[in-house]
Amino acid sequence: MPNRPAFIPDRVQTINFSAVNEKSPPVYSDLTNEDDGFSLNDIIEGNSITPTRTRLLGNNRAEQQYADAFEWFLKAAGQGSAAAQNSLGVLYREGKGVAQSYDCALEWFLKAAEQGVLDAQFNLGKLYLDGKGVPQDYQKAMEWLLKAAEREEVNAQFKIGELYFSGKGVPQDRQKAMEWFLKAADQGNTNAQFNIGVLYLSGKGIPQDYQQAMEWFLKAADRGSASAHFNIGNMYYKGDGTPQDYQRAMEWFLKGAEKGDSNAQCSIGCFYNNGNGVPRDGQKAMEWFLKAADQGNVYAQFGVGNLYYRGNGIPQDYQKAMEWYLKAANHGHSHAQRSIGLMYLNGEGAPKDYEKAMQWLLKAADQEDSAALASIGEMYQRGLGVVQDNQKAKEWYLMAAEKGSDVAHRKLNELSYSWAMMGSLKHVSGSIQFWSIHFFLFFLVYYLIIWIFT
């Protein structure tokens, strides 16, 4: 599945085949791994060269200025300027003013890093971390990042926290991850503040603490983190560590949505779709789902498909529903995969096709989708596109029931009753057959005796 998106839109199953009403729980935005990195913002002023830690030269600078900067840095680097050597590495890495070359970037970063340039040590560690210009090597990445982090380099501290969290290059240690995130957060690193909130929210490696999670999300939100806005909204939506409040949730989702967060946009669509704190409005739900879907949010794509399928505030259109379900399904969305399977099963938006129905239901079943498991069981029970087989049906129903499918429980009861009735009928049939034979033999003997003595 994609990167922990907004909460899953409510899927009210209206297809008349193993129909279920389900509501999946919200999902929070997970740890972020973004970093600003180091590049150049200020170009040469007089004879000075000023490498900085912001964006490379700014978007409004012409390519010629990059080329001029490259020539200046090259001259200075040749005279032993470590700062210029690091700046050359940045230009080579970004492909600004010179053809992009990670090999050359590595060479210049190494020269500068060995002279103790803080930025270069981080940049070198980042190349090893990303495997650009060198084979990916988490241990070497850690070595260089530690050099920078020990000198209070905030982005290096953040990256080390990530490595401890994931266990790349070092044994996984969530507590050490927290320690390094805290170092970076204390220096104002927004992503570190957000990640600390996620750790407290999830209780990964530390005791779960909703109050601490909220505090850190608020810090990150104050510094502009759209994901933090979304998670705060989700905490109000779910009532995690705070009284459930749909209106405040909507306020925070809107803040995140205004910053372009697709998860927040999708969540607003869900609120309008479900009537959470706002009147139900299919058209507004569609508007917000489309904003998120245009950014590739698979949950929003599924939501658009649902609206078209159900005709909620818009004209019902099975073909468009199928198109949007396919977009989400091709990115691994199990509910969309199951929905496509059921549409093929019922001939909605496409001709009935039991083979395709089974293929899509199996994809969803591979992700332990309980409704898909139950639907496959029903196909075996009814012999739709497969040889009728109650035993296989029972096996699929059992798997679905273990995942909480009420439909599967009901179907299992139906099968048990059916088998019990069949057993009773066989018993009755056997008894009738037994007594019929005995009565036949009795009358046969009776008539033989009469015939013999008359």
Automatic annotation (TrEMBL):
Gene3D superfamilies recorded: Tetratricopeptide repeat domain
InterPro entries registered for this protein in UniProt: Sel1-like, Sel1_AlgK, TPR-like_helical_dom_sf
Key words of the record: Membrane, Transmembrane, Transmembrane helix
Superkingdom of origin: Eukaryota
Transmembrane feature ranges: 434-453
Cross-referenced PANTHER family: ERAD-ASSOCIATED E3 UBIQUITIN-PROTEIN LIGASE COMPONENT HRD3 (PTHR11102:SF160), SEL-1-LIKE PROTEIN (PTHR11102)
Family as reported in the entry's similarity comment: Belongs to the sel-1 family.
UniProt protein name: HCP-like protein
Annotated source species: Entomortierella parvispora
